[in-house]
C-alpha cells in the first residue's frame, strides 16, 4: 500500500473507530456513506478530518439526502391502507366468483363429449344434479359401482355458483334429482339448457343444441 493511501486509511480509522484494521477501502467508504452521515445542517461543524480527500468525501455525503424514518413509516402506512381496501374487493369479486371456471368447464366438456361419442361410438351422459351441486360423466350401460365412483369424482361447483335447473323444453324444467344429457354416436345430442345462478345474482344459461359442436353461453335474464 502506498504511503498516501495508508495515511488516508489511518485518518478514517481515527475518525470512525468502528472500522477494523482488516477493513478494505470499500468497506470504509461504505461505512462512511451510510453509517456516518450526520443530520441535515450539521455538516460544517462535523468536518474536522485530518485528510483533505476524506474531508471532500464527507462533505459530498452530507449533500446527499436519504429517506428519514418518519417518511418510511408514512409510506408503509399508506401502502398498508391501500392493501386493506383493495384485497377484500378482489377476494369478494375475482377470487371467490367461480362462474368463469364453471363456464369454461361446461363448454369444454360438451365439446369433448360430442367428439368422443362419435370417435368411440358410445353414448355418453353428462349428469347434472341440483341436489348435490355436481356434474359427472358416465357411459350408457356403465356398471352401478362405476357410475357411483364417477359421481363421487365429478366436477364440484365452486363457491358462489349453483345449479338452478335443466330445461329440455319451455315446459319441461327439472330442478332436482340426477338429470342426464345424452351425447350419441350418430353425432348429435339432446337439446338442453343448463341454468346456473351466482351469489351476486347473475344468471348463466348454457344452450346445448343437437348438431352444434359446443355449448352457447348467454348471461342475464335473456336466457331464462
List the helices and strands and how they pair.
Layout: H1 3-15, H2 25-34, H3 52-63, H4 69-95, H5 99-119, E1 124-129, E2 134-139, H6 144-152, E3 155-156, E4 161-167, E5 173-174, E6 179-183, E7 192-198, E8 203-208, E9 215-219
Antiparallel strand pairs: 1-2, 1-6, 2-3, 4-5, 4-7, 7-8, 8-9
What does it look like?
The protein is α+β, with helices and mostly antiparallel strands and 224 residues long. It has two domains: 61 residues, no CATH class; 125 residues, minor pseudopilin epsh fold (3-Layer(bab) Sandwich). It is built from six helices and nine strands. The strands form two sheets. A five-stranded antiparallel β-sheet has the order 5-4-7-8-9, covered by helices on one side. A hairpin with a 6-residue loop joins strand 8 and strand 9. The relative contact order is 0.10. About 8% of the residues have low confidence.
Quickly list its features.
224 residues; minor pseudopilin epsh fold; four-stranded antiparallel beta sheet; alpha+beta; elongated; 41% helix
Instruction: Kindly estimate the percentage of residues that lie in beta strands according to DSSP.
Output: 15-25%
Q: What is the fold named in CATH at topology level of the largest domain?
A: minor pseudopilin epsh fold
| Radius of gyration of CA atoms, rounded to a whole number | 36 Å
**Major sheet: order of its strands?**
5-4-7-8-9
C-alpha termini separation = 88 Å
How many strands in all?
A: 9
Q: Average the pLDDT over all residues and give the rounded result.
A: 79
The first-level CATH class of the largest domain is given as Alpha Beta
**Total individual domains:** 2
The 3D shape can be described as elongated
Instruction: Point out poorly predicted stretches.
Output: 32-49
Question: What is the CATH architecture descriptor of the largest domain?
Answer: 3-Layer(bab) Sandwich
Oligomeric grouping of the chains: single chain
Amino acid at each position: 500500500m502506498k504511503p498516501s493511501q495508508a495515511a488516508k486509511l489511518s485518518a478514517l480509522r481515527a475518525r470512525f473507530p468502528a472500522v477494523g484494521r482488516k477493513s478494505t477501502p470499500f468497506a470504509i467508504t461504505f461505512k462512511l456513506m451510510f453509517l456516518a452521515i450526520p443530520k441535515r445542517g450539521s455538516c460544517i461543524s462535523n468536518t474536522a478530518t485530518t485528510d483533505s480527500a476524506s474531508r471532500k468525501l464527507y462533505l459530498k455525503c452530507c449533500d446527499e439526502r436519504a429517506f428519514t424514518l418518519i417518511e418510511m413509516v408514512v409510506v408503509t402506512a399508506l401502502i398498508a391502507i391501500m392493501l386493506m381496501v383493495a384485497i377484500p374487493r378482489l377476494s369478494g369479486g375475482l377470487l371467490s366468483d367461480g362462474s368463469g371456471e364453471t363456464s369454461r368447464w361446461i363448454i369444454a366438456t360438451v365439446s369433448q363429449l360430442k367428439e368422443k361419442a362419435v370417435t368411440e361410438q358410445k353414448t355418453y351422459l353428462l349428469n347434472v344434479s341440483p341436489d348435490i351441486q355436481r356434474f359427472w360423466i358416465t357411459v350408457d350401460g356403465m356398471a352401478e359401482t362405476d357410475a357411483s365412483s364417477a359421481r363421487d369424482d365429478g366436477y364440484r361447483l365452486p363457491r358462489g355458483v349453483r345449479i338452478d335447473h335443466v330445461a329440455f323444453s319451455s315446459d319441461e324444467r327439472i330442478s332436482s334429482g340426477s338429470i342426464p344429457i345424452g351425447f350419441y354416436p350418430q353425432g348429435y345430442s339432446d337439446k338442453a339448457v343448463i341454468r346456473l345462478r351466482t351469489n351476486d345474482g347473475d344468471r348463466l344459461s348454457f344452450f346445448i343444441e343437437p348438431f352444434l359442436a359446443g355449448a352457447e353461453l348467454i348471461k342475464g335474464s335473456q336466457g331464462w
